[in-house]
Amino acid sequence: MLIAHRKKRNLWPSEVYRVKFIDEAIITVQSGDGGRGCVSFRREKFIPRGGPDGGDGGKGGDVILEASSQKRTLYFFRYRKDFKAKNGAGGQGKRKAGKHGDDLVLEIPPGTVIGDADTGQVIKDLTKPGEKYIIAKGGRGGRGNARFKTSTNRAPRFAQPGESGEILKLKLELKLLADVGIIGLPNAGKSTLISAISSAHPKTGSYPFTTLVPNLGVVKTDWGEPFVVADIPGLIEGAHKGAGLGIRFLRHIERTRILIHLIDSSSIDPADPLMSYKTINKELEMYNKELAKKSQIVVLNKIDMPDAKKAVDIFQAFAKGIKIILISALTGEGIDNLKSKIVQSLDKLDKLDE
Ligand SMILES: Nc1nc2c(ncn2[C@@H]2O[C@H](COP(=O)(O)OP(=O)(O)OP(=O)(O)O)[C@@H](O)[C@H]2O)c(=O)[nH]1
Ligand SMILES: [Mg+2]
User: Fold this and answer.
1) What are the pLDDT digits (tens) for 160-189?
2) 3.50.50.60, 1.20.120.140, 3.40.50.150, 2.70.210.12: which CATH number matches 21-175?
């Protein structure tokens, strides 16, 4: 079986799975048109022929892209694709200028590359939170007739129209960095879990090493910004020395913010209930001390199985002081609770960063 896996792996060019690490959106943005200039003449009592007093049109709104640490993915752009800033208002009599159109600010996650969707050319790379870029400038307002008065034409009957806004088709591209990594022994149910909570649907199977390359999925929640989860191949004892597959992918989760440590409750050995938990943590530490320090959410899976309750009780009795979440990735039990715990942990870390 392993040979078959190896063959398959070689057949997969890195490109194939690199695609999964990218979030993309194609959107159209349009800046506001400038307001038209006004043609108007002063009309006052006892002044039969007042001069021209048409005001200028207002400037159209800009479309601005802003990198925001509140955004983790391009999920928002799956459902809205057309964006337009406001037009400038027309000028009025008495030299009153039209109001400027409001700018439209679109928040995108830091690290988003903005390109021209038609030519593929990169326009801008927004990396730091707070960084802004005017992607489409609003049209200038047209000048009112008051501006065109000259010695030879004291009563111009014309004004400028406003300049049109720009329309751009953009491709947004974000290399996804997972916020959450799922770790555990082979068969713990990591891929089943990522399927249950996210847009990723990797292969699952009742044999070890079903997953050969990491999978990334975007998880949408009811509590705010979606987050990204990575499921990596199972870790086994000796992984840090190269046993199994998981180790070579640990670097993918080095930059995650939290880890879900997934344990198959049906394989808990009553004689040594914490064995798998300790094995994984030891491997993390041998690989990289920082990784071992990352905050973990410990999750017992497969609680739908017969005798699961007994195994969970035993585990809990031994794992004093460790908070445990119970789920069945297969039936969905406990999944919402887990999602809300992940969101809470991420929010807490976000606050610490601020
Ligand atoms: N009864 C039950 N079976 C589960 C549950 N979660 C996963 N399984 C099964 O456990 C087996 C392994 O699941 P996977 O999701 O492939 O496990 P994995 O951790 O990704 O395994 P590797 O990729 O090999 O490391 C599959 O047959 C799943 O159907 C669960 O909550 N309950
Ligand atoms: Mg898997």
Assistant:
1) 999 999 999 999 988 777 889 999 999 999
2) 2.70.210.12
What's the 134 CA to ligand 1 centre distance in angstroms? Answer: 47
As annotated, the residues of the chain forming the CATH 3.40.50.300 domain(s) are: 177-353
Percent of the chain with pLDDT over 70: 91
Q: Could you read off the pLDDT of 141-162 as tens digits, one per residue?
A: 999 999 999 989 989 999 999 9
Task: Spell out where the chain has E strands.
Answer: 22-30, 63-67, 82-84, 104-108, 112-116, 122-126, 132-136, 167-175, 180-183, 215-221, 224-231, 258-264, 295-301, 324-326
C-alpha distances in Å from residue 66, one per residue of 71, 82, 109, 202, 283: 10, 17, 8, 33, 40
Q: Which amino acids bring their CB within 6 angstroms of ligand 1?
A: 184, 186-192, 204-206, 208-211, 233-234, 301-302, 304-305, 328-330
Calculate how far, in angstroms, residue 188's C-alpha sits from the geometric centre of ligand 2: 8
> What is the CA(192)–ligand 1 centre distance, in A?
5
From 204, 283, 309, mutation site for ligand 1 pocket: most ligand atoms within 8 A of C-beta:
204
pLDDT value of position 20: 44
Q: Which ligand number lies closest to the CA of residue 245? A: 1
